[in-house]
Amino acid sequence: MDNLTRRARTPLRRRLPGMALWAGNACISLFLVAPILIVMLSSFNPKQYFAFPPTGFTLRWYAELAANAEIVAAFAFSLKLAILATAASTLFGTAMAVAVHRARSLAAGAVRGAVLAPLVVPGVVLGIALLLYFSQTDAIGPFAVLLGAHVCLTLPFVFRIVTAGIESTDRSIEESAMSLGASRAVAVLTVTLPLIKGSIFAAATFAFLTSFDEVVVTLFIAPPDTPTLPVYIFHYIQYNSDTLVAAAATAMVLIGSVAAWLCSRKASLGRLY
């Protein structure tokens, strides 16, 4: 008996909970995705102002987006900042996760709490704290300050995701390598890290998206002459409401979607190999 026949013979009252669950999930998904779809569809509207549904189709706003020197500079600045923040947080977060995971001392618990603290601190509070802290010295350049802030924001995600990856591995594999003469460092580099490469890639992707989309903390400490793309859009939409903003937002959504797709692809390959 195939699944369709079995489902047809199941009483309706037994299928109602499942149908209600699917309907609820569909409504929640639509609620979450609908605003994004509206913005993306509005970016093809030929009119100067926001309008939905679109009255036509044009790529004019994407052409203006690519020709806008300020937006291109903000995008390049955001990309550079996100790549450096991702590299730093992935390196430090992975090293800390490996070092702290199996430790049971009070110092290890303190390190875990300090690393995860930015997750529970509001962005406004963190931005003000970083602004007050770094304003006390002129020895650190504005870009280094902004990079440090983004590393603080992305490091907890990398640490938590990599820790989860380590917890899912079999500890006996690493211990077997050490019993055969490998040092702890060699065992970690040649056994543990290859086993959690999918988690590391996922953590790096999440760190990149977090840094690239960050607005609140960046508003407090970003250099006024070189804003990031989200900050530029935030300031732009305060005085303008044209469709160029929808095109810029759609471009950011596409970048995030590509990064998420690459993450899922890499994670799948990690499970196979």
CATH uppermost class of the largest domain: Mainly Alpha
**Quaternary structure of the protein:** single chain
List the total number of helices. Answer: 13
How many angstroms does the end-to-end distance come to? 36 Å
Structural class: mainly alpha
Low-confidence stretches: 269-273
* Overall pLDDT metric: 78
Taking the sheet with the most strands, its summary is: none
What is CATH's topology name of the largest domain?
MetI-like fold
Counted up, domains total: 2
Beta percentage is under 5%
Helix percentage = over 70%
Listing every helix as H and every strand as E from the N terminus to the C terminus, the arrangement reads: HHHHHHHHHHHHH
CATH homologous superfamily assignment of the largest domain: MetI-like
Radius of gyration of CA atoms, rounded to a whole number: 24 Å
Nutshell version of this structure?
With 273 residues, the chain is mainly alpha-helical. 78% of the residues lie in helices and 0% in strands.
Structure description:
The protein is mainly α and 273 residues long. It folds into two domains: 3-42; 61-272, MetI-like fold, CATH 1.10.3720. Helix content is 78%, strand content 0%. The protein has 13 helices and no strands. The chain has helices at 3-9, 12-42, 60-67, 69-101, 106-116, 123-134, 142-167, 171-179, 184-195, 197-213, 216-221, 229-239, 244-272. The protein is globular, with a radius of gyration of 24 Å. It starts with a helix and ends with a helix. 27% of the residues are buried.
